[in-house]
Amino acid sequence: MFDWILSVMSQAGYAGLAFLMLIENVFPPIPSEVVVPLGGFLAARGSFSLPLVIIVATAGSVAGATFWYWVGIVVGEARLRAFAARYGRWLTISPGDVDRASAWFREKGAWAVLVGRMMPGFRTLISVPAGVARMPLGPFLIYTTAGSLVWIGGLAILGYVLESQYERVGDWIDPASWIVLGAVVGIYLWRLFRQEVRS
């Protein structure tokens, strides 16, 4: 995966970076923890500009988050609850889980989006309840952008600072991305097994 990410960014430049950050939010197993520090590394080598890396990566990330926001808007709370009632066994969620998640989001609101965009594994998911709860688009974009900017800025600066050591990162970053994917699948299977035991 690392070689593919490097190839996209090397050939497509900033457009490739924006594309990778967009799909990173739509398809989480492509981790920003790989993409953004690589952009910082390339900036340190003179191929990119560090401020532009941060701006472009943030724009791609916000675009991907907005996709899931609109998914939440279209689905809506009632439809999501009905979906969970019908397919919750395979999703490992219940209508009650949907209600609790929606109530929690309405209580935490904008802060949930701001903090959620800085949390690995939670960054993409936070956009769906924002849409389900009908959070206004303006505040959603403001808090999503702010949280994404902090997260992406930190990763980009890290890649920039570690320039001389970054090539060694490729030796462990590719297996790490597959470990993340395996962990996601493992958590799902564990929740599914626990649900079967309870029933």
TrEMBL record:
The record's listing under InterPro entries reads: DedA_domain (IPR051311), VTT_dom (IPR032816)
Tell me yes or no: is Protein biosynthesis among this UniProt entry's keywords. no
A Pfam entry, by short name: VTT_dom
Q: Which GO terms describe its cellular component?
A: plasma membrane
Keyword set, alphabetical order? Cell membrane, Membrane, Transmembrane, Transmembrane helix
Domain named VTT is located at 30-160
Q: Which residues cross the membrane?
A: 12-30, 50-71, 140-161, 176-193
Using the UniProt record, give the first listed, main subcellular location.
membrane
Membrane topology classification: Multi-pass membrane protein
UniProt keyword annotation of Membrane present: yes
Q: Where in the cell is it found?
A: Cell membrane
Name used for this protein in its record: Membrane protein DedA with SNARE-associated domain
Q: What taxonomic ancestry is recorded?
A: Bacteria, Pseudomonadati, Pseudomonadota, Alphaproteobacteria, Rhodobacterales
